[in-house]
Amino acid sequence: MRPFTYVRAESLRDALDNARTADTRFLAGGTELLNWARIGIESPRRLVDIGRLPDLHEITSYSDGLRIGALALLNDVAQDPRVEASYPVLSQAILKSASAQLRNLATIGGNPVQRTRCPYFRSPGPVACNKRVPKSGCAALHGANERLAIFGWTEDCVAVQPSDPAVALACLDAEITTEHVDGGRRIPAPEFHTLPGEDPSAHNVLRPGELITGIEIGAPVPKSAYVKVRERQSYEFALVSAAAAVEIRDGLISRARLALGSVAMRPWRLYDAEQALVGLRPGSPAVREAVTSGFSASRPLSSNAYKIPLARNTALRALDLALALEA
Known about the structure:
CATH architecture of the domain at 225-324: 2-Layer Sandwich
Oligomer: single chain
Order of helices and strands: EHEHEEEHHHHHEEEEEEEHHH
Radius of gyration: 19 Å
């Protein structure tokens, strides 16, 4: 780890002013950033500690939804009564995302920016990885790719995004709010992460010095659920996961949202399946056919064809759980 300058920001403007250079990183909970520095993924020359910034820890209710400050701790978000009642998919995704110790330190704004768990990206030795060294290639394309992408990959990168909360936020059509010295913006959660076809070296759309300040979620979706499939029941990253949110009117599905995790470099929305589900009666055979229609774009790698039926069945399970909840 190379030497770096540490700055404790006293205000939002102070944080942004201290992050004008590309080799600066923001430090919140530090559960990811310090690990990146340890294994050489990142070597920032300046760390700007934003952990004590005012007004970014609060969870605020509005008439049309909820705003969660970026520095709200994962456990505080998951156990907030408003989140548990109105957005159970988010509460469940957070509780399954990490150990209790990590959830008491990690923040809701920091979790979606975590990097891929691709073994080549995190390799301690030099290997071909376009995310570590742009234009160096992708060793995973014909290597150990059994846990990697089935959607949206290219020959330049077959990695997946590992965040559980990000999948729930994409399913809920949340918006991520940011600030920057050149002006902030609102980023739809399903578009926050970058696919390899756009830039194989990028993980998300944040600009250098751009700070996540909050997450905004719309109207409550009490009929929602999250399912995570992993190799062991204790804390582990997902093989696949699925988030489902549904609305029922007159006994029929009036709206459905489905997002998959650990299948692409962003949470993968099954938009075709969502449209096909509208008007169907819960429990009918047509529901399975509708969900299956969302997998027409799936493409397995050399060692992960099992992920396609696994992801399909996980999506169906999440949908079944969401439909079973009392609104």
